[in-house]
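Hi R.,

Here's the chain you asked about this morning:
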Amino acid sequence: MGIIGKGDPSPFELQGGDIGVLLIHGFTGSPAEMRPLGQYLNDRELTVSAPLLPGHGTKVEDLNEISWPDWTTAVEKALVDLRERCAHVFVAGLSMGALLTLYLAARHPELPGIAVYAPALDISDWRRPFAPIIKLFVKTVAKDDEHWDDPQAEDLIWAYDEWPVGGTQQLFKLRDEVEKSLPRITSPALICYSTADSSVTPEGAYMVRDTIGSEDNEVVEMNECGHVMTLDRGWDDLAERTYQFIMARVPEPGATVNN
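And the predicted structure, written out as tokens:
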């Protein structure tokens, strides 16, 4: 057991203009899954920051030593750091990264917009309710094969090939915390899901749409990709939608900036 893919798990920063985008990767993954999207946005003069979340980029057992506030603290710090360089900061995330994006939005109503890809609110794994019991007997569980519409895309990721049982329980706790805070979100939202996703269901995307306090939201159905839609077939369409969403919601000159 080890790693899936050949991507670079390192955090990355791409300097651009005064519009910033914080990109947050998913559970057991790494910034590698956000790199093409980040490069796409940076090529259009946006500044991009993609941190590596605690417990990731090393070995899967490290995720069993993490609690969910470690992740929220890390993204809060990344948001503060990016705001020091950019007048306006948007946040986008994949799966657990989408949960962390929603977490930030609930606590920062001044965010001009968020994008959530495959939000991990309705998780497909039947083992979810049994995580507290399973972790007493095993530390990790092998992953099922991921669906990829573009088989070559799998080489671009860097992810653990097992689920950390204790870490997964922390993911569920984060999910529950985020669900409670959804009505507090007032930022415009781009909400994307895939019909071929085997990890989370479309219901999670519609839960976001129907529960958040913002009426400025858009749901996008993707049909040519699996869970990791930021790398799989159609990722460039997703990137362009994200770019257009951001540019349509940049505050007018003279508007209050993030603080």
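The CA atoms of residues 192 and 242 lie 10 Å apart.

Let me know if you need anything else.
M.
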